[in-house]
Specification:
Layout: H1 2-51, E1 57-63, H2 70-80, E2 86-92, E3 97-103, H3 109-118, H4 130-134
Antiparallel strand pairs: 1-3, 2-3
The structure holds copper (II) ion.
């Protein structure tokens, strides 16, 4: 009994294996296509977001002397991008510098600095809002 079932088992395992391989390929192709679609639609969104005919695109390098760690970087990048008129944010943790692209028709540099200060971080000479700074995690506060 065992001897007659074993070849069948092996055969079906091989079949399943081959089938699984085929499925895998199909899945890979699909997910690749999806990834491509996702990335191209993401590019499109960024494109729209940035190029929604921003006539007065401005770039600022903002000194961030109080940032301490990756949490600060993420907080500023993630928080600032939600501000209307901000097009992109990149925080250089080592250089303690924020690179901000914004719509100069919507925001001034002072507005950008204030938005960062409202997140609890000093921006250029504009000091962090005390209440926002107080609610930062300890790792993001300036060592005393
Ligand atoms: Cu931090």
């Amino acid at each position: 009994m065992k001897n007659s079932i074993l070849p069948l088992l092996i055969a079906s395992l091989l079949l399943v294996g081959a089938c699984g391989g085929g499925d895998q390929k199909a899945i890979d192709t699909t997910s690749h296509d999806q990834a491509q679609q996702a990335s191209s639609s993401e590019q499109m969104m960024n494109h729209d977001h940035e190029m929604a005919e921003v006539a007065n695109k401005a770039h600022a390098m903002v000194k961030l002397p109080t940032i301490q760690c990756d949490v600060c970087k993420a907080a500023i990048e993630g928080g600032l991008i939600k501000t209307a008129g901000i097009l992109s944010v990149m925080v250089d943790l080592d250089g303690k510098m924020g690179h901000v692209n914004y719509d100069g028709d919507v925001l001034s540099l002072e507005d950008v600095e204030q938005a960062i200060a409202d997140l609890g971080y000093q921006a250029n000479d504009r000091l962090a809002e005390p209440s926002a700074y107080a609610s930062l995690p300890d790792c993001c506060k300036v060592p005393q």
